[in-house]
Amino acid sequence: MLARKLTVVLLFCAVLTGWLASGWLQGPRPAHAETAYAELQLFTDVLSIVRRSYVEEVPVKELVYGAIDGMLASLDPHSGFMPPDVYKEMKIDTRGEFGGLGIEITLKDEILTIVTPIEDTPAFRAGLAAGDRILKIGDQYTKGMEIMGAVRLMRGAPGTDVTIAVMREGFEKPKEFTLKREVIKIKSIKAKTLEDGFGYIRVTQFQERTASDLERALEGLRKESGGGLKGLVVDLRNNPGGLLDQAVDVADLFLAEGLIVYTKGREADAQMEFSAKRSGTEPDYPMVVLINGGSASASEIVAGALQDHGRGVILGVQSFGKGSVQTILPLGDDSGLRLTTARYYTPKGTSIQAKGITPDIEVRQVEVKEAGEREHFREKDLPNHFGSEQGEKPAKPAEMNGSHFQVDADQRGDYQLMRALDLLKGWQILQGLKRPAA
């Protein structure tokens, strides 16, 4: 049986070599075809030697999977081979439910690094942060480990524990976090009215239903605000990305026309352009888009499109800088191939690969503490002062503007969000000022 499997693999390699030598090339065989033939022959030779002489017998499939893993690992951090179990989980991921810890990872300087922890997951609650370097998973060190291998180690049955050791700037030595795996259910859209007329949308990830969920959330915000919005904050912080088509559809909701994103690759199928449609476009209310170092891929597509069209002000810090497109290709044994096939470009032709989106207004996150007000001597403290016609009790801000909504304590502590809200409210006030004629 093993010999038969080896024969099949060798036959496959021989057929592939034949394609390279003849079917894919017209006319005389050029030098690079000769090189490809020799290198494929080298692979089949090594495979045969390992099968015959390695100290222990190894299944052919395991050797082939290992060879594919090594080949893709030499390309870029986002290409990879997915065995059947990992490919199955990947398809579940895009539907917004999967088992694991709740972190998006990448390879940075050949070190396994957290792009972002996903909200309301074990990783998020444990305090893991974007930029943390994972040095160990369980009893295995991650040096030289591929992303898909790390994913397989961190995922498992819900309720089971896994310990990871991370290094962070400011740590004197790696710190261990023991996390309990959960079934991760991600709600991609969270919405709230901050104050009357000012809405807040948090996009956590781009999944199959993100754009349609966003439409419903916006409709709910409009109803809460009496039919219209004075301004909107779109929060893309710590959004690791997701499906390209959903990023396009989200941007399309706010753009009536023009290019959203285009891609360029080697194959004709990788040359794509996506443009906005006028139907279903949101009203032209002011928008502020929040980004940070955990905003990657699809979230950068949205931020870049809105920035290039002048549809919203981008506020925060430089985004992650993942400007490449991955195509998922199913393979014959229920495994899958994740391959980088193109770069994407913002409408003005900017590639953000390894660079990121630069915010229009840079605002770093800081810890906010409310300072106690010093005691002041006021008019009401003077003897024989006369009272106000409306009474001496000062009106609360909510009473002054008739607001039914107020920012909650957690959001008041979010400095970037408060700056975004202040920017929207300031724009509203400035628009209402009466200016003298020139």
Distance between the termini: 91 Å
Radius of gyration: 28 Å
Shape: elongated
Q: Kindly estimate the percentage of residues that lie in beta strands according to DSSP.
A: 15-25%
The total count of strands amounts to: 19
Largest sheet: 6 strands, mixed
Which structural class is indicated by helix and strand composition? alpha+beta
- The parts where pLDDT drops under 50 for at least 5 residues are 1-26
**Helicity level, as a percent range?**
25-40%
Mean pLDDT: 86
In spatial order, strands of the major sheet run 10-11-12-15-16-19
- Summed up, the helix count is 12
Keywords:
alpha+beta, 438 residues, elongated, 5-stranded antiparallel beta sheet, 19 strands
Please characterize this protein's 3D structure:
With 438 residues, this protein is of the alpha+beta class. Helix content is 33%, strand content 23%. It has helices at residues 2-23, 31-53, 60-73, 84-93, 122-126, 147-154, 210-224, 244-254, 298-308, 397-401, 409-412, 415-432, and strands spanning 80-82, 97-100, 103-108, 111-117, 133-137, 140-141, 161-167, 175-180, 182-185, 189-195, 198-203, 231-235, 259-265, 272-275, 287-291, 313-316, 324-330, 336-345, 361-362. It is elongated and about 105 Å long.
Write the layout of secondary structure elements.
Layout: H1 2-23, H2 31-53, H3 60-73, E1 80-82, H4 84-93, E2 97-100, E3 103-108, E4 111-117, H5 122-126, E5 133-137, E6 140-141, H6 147-154, E7 161-167, E8 175-180, E9 182-185, E10 189-195, E11 198-203, H7 210-224, E12 231-235, H8 244-254, E13 259-265, E14 272-275, E15 287-291, H9 298-308, E16 313-316, E17 324-330, E18 336-345, E19 361-362, H10 397-401, H11 409-412, H12 415-432
Helix pairs in contact: 1-2, 7-8, 8-9
